Amino acid sequence: MEVKIRMQKAGDPAQKNHNWRIVAIPKSYPRDGRVLEILGHYDPSKKPAVYKIDVAKVEAWVKKGALMTDTVRSLYNKTKKG
Predict the structure, then answer these.
(1) Which of 15, 43, 45, 63 could be disulfide-bonded to 50 (CB atoms 3.0-4.6 Å)?
(2) Ordered domains of the chain (ranges, CATH)
(3) What angle is formed at CA 36 by the lines to CA 64 and CA 13, rounded to 5 degrees?
C-alpha cells in the first residue's frame, strides 16, 4: 500500500472557513477519504497562517515509505527550521 502525506479539507464549508488537516492516507483514497493518521493542521485564514505538524510522526511515516506532497513538504521544512 503506497501512502501519501497530504492535506485534507476540514472546517465549515457553509461559512467558507476552510482549514486543512495534514494526514497520512493511502494514495488511492480520495482527498477527503478515511485516513490512517492525522499528523497536523494548517489554517491559512488567520494572519499569519497557523500550522502545526508532529515532526516525529511524519518522520516515522517517511521511514515506512510515505511520500509528502510539495505543500506538506514546505510546511514540514518550515516547522523543522522554526
Answers:
(1) 43
(2) 3-81 (3.30.1320.10)
(3) 135
- pLDDT string in tens for the chain (82-residue length): 799 999 998 877 766 778 899 999 999 988 788 899 999 999 988 889 899 999 999 999 999 999 999 999 999 999 988 6
Cell of 28: 488511492
Q: Are 71 and 7 in contact (CB under 8 A)?
A: yes
Return the ∠ at Cα 73 (arms to 70 and 51), rounded to 5°.
115
pTM above 0.85, yes or no: yes
In the three-class reduction of DSSP (H, G, I as helix; E, B as strand; rest coil), residue 32 is classed as: coil
